[in-house]
């Protein structure tokens, strides 16, 4: 009997030893897993909050429909990030934005972290480009500037002015003057037509706002006539405090029936025939835009007027001047006269200064 009990006791001790050995083995394995998991988590945290490897600013383009993993591959290929696709995916899930990453062009600045980049893409903080329409540009110059704006999708080449006007619902197919000089933001993927739409909408809103506030004595029958006169004022002077005075001259001429006789309209009517010098034969050659040969305003604006020129057209300065001529001293300013005799003397002074210069 004693030997049986001893055998059982031995077997029990042996079984308990084996259990203890397996338990220690499991605990060791769990500890190893814990260490590995801790190291992996530490590496993940390092990845998420360490700056990307950027020596200078650059951009990445996340094209709509492209899997985000392709962007990750690009970052790894260009040695901007060493994070694995799994880390990037885990980070987007941790931030709860995995389904909200937006396509677009993004600016990467030195110091940006993966967490910062994911937040930027979730909020859609894409690169904003800017396009400035300059006061006094013609529509032709605007089209050329848009065509040279890299990054804008080009839809205007192949369309004539009338087709563009039709798309923008501009009456009579004449787009000249209908775009407000201002700076417009656009993002990669936007089109040149979208910029035109914004500028056209801005001009319509400006005229809708300013026309009801006009001087009731202004000799203009419509907002479009105001746009035409403003474009002439814009081309006549770049000196701010002269705009209202020049508008006053034109308003008085319109009111009493004297022709405007303004050179910029003649130049516009000449189109590509103009070589930089206006000659007497140009003043005597009749075109729809020759205000020396035709009464009243030309049929369309001759440029894109800014808000200041529109304000001047609607609020001309009081006075009795009917003429003006450049001083010719390089200042861009003008001398104003109430009579033809005074004006002729002012012209003589201008010619004398021009010869001296």
UniProtKB/TrEMBL annotation:
The record marks 236 as: Important for catalytic activity. Its EC number is 4.2.2.29. It is a single-pass membrane protein. Pfam families: YceG. GO terms for molecular function: lytic endotransglycosylase activity. It catalyses: a peptidoglycan chain = a peptidoglycan chain with N-acetyl-1,6-anhydromuramyl-[peptide] at the reducing end + a peptidoglycan chain with N-acetylglucosamine at the non-reducing end. Belongs to the transglycosylase MltG family. This is Endolytic murein transglycosylase. It comes from Dokdonella immobilis. The lineage of its organism: Bacteria, Pseudomonadati, Pseudomonadota, Gammaproteobacteria, Lysobacterales. The gene is mltG.
């Amino acid at each position: 009997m004693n030997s049986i009990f001893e055998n059982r006791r031995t077997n029990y001790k042996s079984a308990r030893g084996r259990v203890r050995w397996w338990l220690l083995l499991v605990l060791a394995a769990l500890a190893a897993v814990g260490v590995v998991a801790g190291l992996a988590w530490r590496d993940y945290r390092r990845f998420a909050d360490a700056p990307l490897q950027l020596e200078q600013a650059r951009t990445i383009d996340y094209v709509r429909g492209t899997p985000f993993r392709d962007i990750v591959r690009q970052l790894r290929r260009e040695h901007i990030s060493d994070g694995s696709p799994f880390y990037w995916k885990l980070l987007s899930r941790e931030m709860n934005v995995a389904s909200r990453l937006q396509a677009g062009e993004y600016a990467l600045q030195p110091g940006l972290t993966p967490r910062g980049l994911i937040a930027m893409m979730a909020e859609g903080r894409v690169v904003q480009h800017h396009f400035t329409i300059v006061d006094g540009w013609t529509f032709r110059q605007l089209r050329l500037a848009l065509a040279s704006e890299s990054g804008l999708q080009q839809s205007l080449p192949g369309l004539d002015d009338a087709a563009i006007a039709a798309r923008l619902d501009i009456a009579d197919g004449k787009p000249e003057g209908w775009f407000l000089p201002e700076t417009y933001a656009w993002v990669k993927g936007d089109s040149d037509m979208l910029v035109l739409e914004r500028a056209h909408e801005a001009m319509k809103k400006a005229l809708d706002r300013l026309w009801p506030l006009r001087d009731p004595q202004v000799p203009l029958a419509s907002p479009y006539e105001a746009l035409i006169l403003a474009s002439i004022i814009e081309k006549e002077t770049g000196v701010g405090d002269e705009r209202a005075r020049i508008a006053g001259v034109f308003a008085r001429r319109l009111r009493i029936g004297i022709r405007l006789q303004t050179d910029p309209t003649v130049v516009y009517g000449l189109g590509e025939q103009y070589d930089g010098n206006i000659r007497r034969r140009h003043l005597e050659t009749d075109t729809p835009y020759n205000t020396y040969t035709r009464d009243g305003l030309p049929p369309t604006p001759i440029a894109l007027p800014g808000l200041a020129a529109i304000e001047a057209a609607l609020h001309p300065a009081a006075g009795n001047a009917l003429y003006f001529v450049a001083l010719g001293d390089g200042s861009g300013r003008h001398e104003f006269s109430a009579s033809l005799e005074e004006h002729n003397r002012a012209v003589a002074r201008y010619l004398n200064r021009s010869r001296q210069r």
